[in-house]
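Thread title: Can someone regenerate the structure for this chain?

I was given the following input by a collaborator and told the matching structure tokens would be attached. They weren't. Posting the sequence so someone can regenerate them.
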Amino acid sequence: MSNEIPEPESGTQQVTLRRAPKILAFVIVGGGIGAIVTFILTSLFPVDPLVGFGPLFAYFALFGVTGGVLIGAILALIVDRRSKKRARTGEAEFITEKRPEPEKRPELEKRPELEKRPEPPLS
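Best answer:
Regenerated them for you:
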């Protein structure tokens, strides 16, 4: 085998460039805002002494956080659609390197003396 390193191939390719939003960030922030709004709205009204503030807030937080997550996801999709409209095309250079095949090492090949091992005695 020769130790020649092949030359890398290069070229250009048309690519689309756009700034896409991170949808998970919108969803998490929407859920957080939903929890904060739920906390504020729950604290504005009188609390039933038999139930307490904590369970009442937890119950309404189910709806508030879900609504916030939904609004955040919808907002992220709207921003994503707008980013697709503003997308530009450009050229990008790429380089493809070919790795040389590894040399065969005889010490790593199969050794016939190790293929047939004696079986251990049964107890």
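The two ends are 51 Å apart (CA to CA).
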